[in-house]
Amino acid sequence: MTVEKEIVKKIEEYDTIIIHRHQHPDPDAYGSQGGLATAIMQSFPAKKVYQVGKNIPGLNWITVENEDLPDATYKNALVIVTDTANTPRVDDDRYNKGDFLIKIDHHPNDDQYGDLSLVNTNASSCSEIIHDLILASEGKLELTAEVAEKLYAGISSDTGRFMYDATTAHTMEVVASLMRTGIDTSKINRRLDSITLPVARLSAYVYENMKITKNNAAYIILNHDKIEEFDLGDAGTSAVVPLLGKINTTICWTVFVQQKDGTYRLRVRSKGPVINELAKEYQGGGHPLASGARIDDANEIPVYIEKLDGLAKKFAEEHDMTDW
């Protein structure tokens, strides 16, 4: 029996199913969680299906408002965690209070948690995996337009509108499958691509104040008072992360976002150099070209930037950069 069929069998077995996602969720976290939850609810109306996680303004259109569940709900429940590489990143640490735990993810499987796991690092997104799980169910889970909208939002976002290397021929086949349900992909893309006026002003600030190292690694440090000035929380800064990579000479880059406690959350991206090993040195990890990390003291930042610059230098020396 395949892992996909084992997961569907567990979904059939349990009357209560609780789905978690990762902290600081992005559209793929919302899309994979919401897409799976909706598919289960529509295919098994008698089951109680809950979605757990802090809500992020601007992304609630992808899935329903999430539940503030009492602890007792976890008794005898099936818990599924989507799009979350390691247990410290799971939003709501009660994920391990259920009767059975399933992990569904597309990040490197460094933290092999769960009683059952479906991890495909070749997938563009967790939403792509959920689509394949639905098809593997042989009709037990239905791919409706409502499900497809959520999964498409996750895939489109995690692939950077299909510009990132993780976009494969299979990704496009999945997109075709989703489109055949009749969803309006243009409308979803416009919504994903739109920004608020505060984010637009922050974008201008980022381009004006970003730094580029000698070897074309870029970075911007967003201190908490600056984020407050633009009337944005931590989640509001996610829209500016791709901006540094739009500059044609940038090889890899990092956005430092200071938290209320003075620590820094790092959003690390790359056009070529593998950056997840660097992220692991700083309490993080993720994909080879898209990772997250954390720095507790601002004094650590110069050393980090020097290492990021070193990755850019090595990559430039090993590759012809004329096409970048």
UniProtKB/TrEMBL annotation:
Q: Which residues form a coiled coil?
A: none
Residue limits of the DDH domain? Answer: 17-155
Entry's Gene Ontology molecular function annotations: nucleic acid binding
Which stretches make up the DHHA1 domain?
243-313
Q: Tell me, what's a Pfam family for it? A: DHHA1
Q: Which PANTHER family does the UniProt entry name for this protein?
A: BIFUNCTIONAL OLIGORIBONUCLEASE AND PAP PHOSPHATASE NRNA
Protein name in the entry: Phosphoesterase, DHH family protein
Q: Which organism is it from?
A: Ligilactobacillus salivarius (strain UCC118)
